[in-house]
Amino acid sequence: MLRIRRFEERCVELYSAAKIRGFVHLYIGEEAVAVGVNEALNPDDAVVSTYREHGHALARGIPAEAVMAEMYGRTTGCSGGRGGSMHLFDASRRFYGGNAIVAGGLPLAAGLALADRMRGQHRVTCCFFGDGAFAEGEFHETANLAALWQLPLLLVCENNLYAMGTALARHEAQTNLAMRAASYGMVAWAVDGMDVEAVEQAAHRATEAIRAGAGPHFLEAHTYRFRAHSMYDPDRYRDKTEIERWQARDPINRLADRMREDGELGDEELAGIERRVTDEVDRAVEAAEQAPEEPACDLLRHVTSRSTEVS
C-alpha cells in the first residue's frame, strides 16, 4: 500500500511539472482494495482494470519502473509507451489492461472467464470497476450472462461514492449495490474497503467459492478517493469535512496502527519500508527519464496489418 501511495504522490509532482501528460486518475485512499484483492488471486488468474489503475497494476506485480515509464510515454513502459496512465497492460502477468471507457472492461472480463470455463481451466478473472460503471448497461449485461453461464468471475466494485463527480444518491435510486447485484442470482456482499485485512478475507472467500464452481461473485468495497476524480478536476462537489472524515480512516495508517498494537511492526521497520519504497519510486523516475521515446518511423507498428490478396 505504501508503494502505491508514494508512487501516486510522485505522479502528482511529475504532472504538476509537466513531466507526465494526459489524464491521470489517482488511487490515493483506495489502496486497500487493490492490495487486499490481489492477495487472494493466483499468478495465472486474470485481472481487468479501469482507468484508475496504477494501484491495481502495482499490486499485481508490474514493476514500478515499467509503470512509470508508461506514464512518461517511453518505450520501456509496460505498454511500450503507447498507453499512458489509462492503458497499462502486461500479458505476462495476465493484467489485461486499464480501460478509458467507463465499464468497458466488464464484457472483456466476461470473455476471459468464459474462455477459461470452456477450456476447463480453474482460474478466476477479476474485474475492477467503480460505482459509476454500475449505471452502465455493460455491467448489467455482464452480470446477467456471468450468472446465467456460471462464469468464474469476481466483480469488484470500488464504490467511492462519487463516480466522476456526482454523488451516488443523486443518480441511483437504490444505493445498496451489492443487493442489486445479488438480484442477478450471484453471491454478493459489501466490505469495508478501507480495511485491507477485511478486503483480503472477503476476496479469499469469494475466490475459493469461484474455484469450487459456485459461479460469479460480487464484492462492493466501500472506499474513498482522497484526491479529485482526475488531475483536471477542481473537486467542488465534495465537502472538505467529509474528505477529512474519510482521511481519518486512511487504510495505511489503520493497518500500521493495528500491527503496532499486535507487536508486528516497529517504528524502525516502518521507516525501513518507507525508505525502500521511496528509493524504488526514485529509481523508477530516473529510469523513465532516461528511457528512449519511440521513433517516428515506428509509429505505424501494431496499428495496421499487411494486406493480403485473396485468390
Report on the structure:
With 311 residues, the chain is α/β, with parallel strands linked by helices. The chain has helices at residues 2-16, 31-39, 54-60, 64-72, 105-119, 137-148, 168-171, 177-182, 196-211, 240-247, 251-261, 267-290, and strands spanning 46-48, 125-130, 153-159, 187-192, 217-222. Strands 1-2-3-5-4 form a five-stranded parallel sheet, sandwiched between helices. The longest helix is centred in the last third of the chain and has 24 residues, at 267-290. It is globular and about 50 Å long. The mean pLDDT is 95.
Derived from helix and strand composition plus strand pairing, the structural class reads alpha/beta
Radius of gyration: 20 Å
Strand content: 5-15%
Please report the total strand number as a whole number.
5
- Low-confidence residue ranges: none
Gap between N and C termini = 58 Å
Number of helices, counting only DSSP H or I runs of 4 residues or more: 12
What sort of overall outline do the alpha carbons produce when their principal axes are compared? globular
Q: What is the spatial order of strands in the main beta sheet?
A: 1-2-3-5-4
> Major sheet, described briefly?
5 strands, parallel
Query: What value does the average pLDDT take?
Result: 95
Question: Topology as H/E string?
Answer: HHEHHHEHEHHEHEHHH
Helix-residue proportion:
40-55%
Structural topology:
Layout: H1 2-16, H2 31-39, E1 46-48, H3 54-60, H4 64-72, H5 105-119, E2 125-130, H6 137-148, E3 153-159, H7 168-171, H8 177-182, E4 187-192, H9 196-211, E5 217-222, H10 240-247, H11 251-261, H12 267-290
Parallel strand pairs: 1-2, 2-3, 3-5, 4-5
Helix pairs in contact: 1-3, 1-12, 2-3, 2-9, 4-12, 5-6
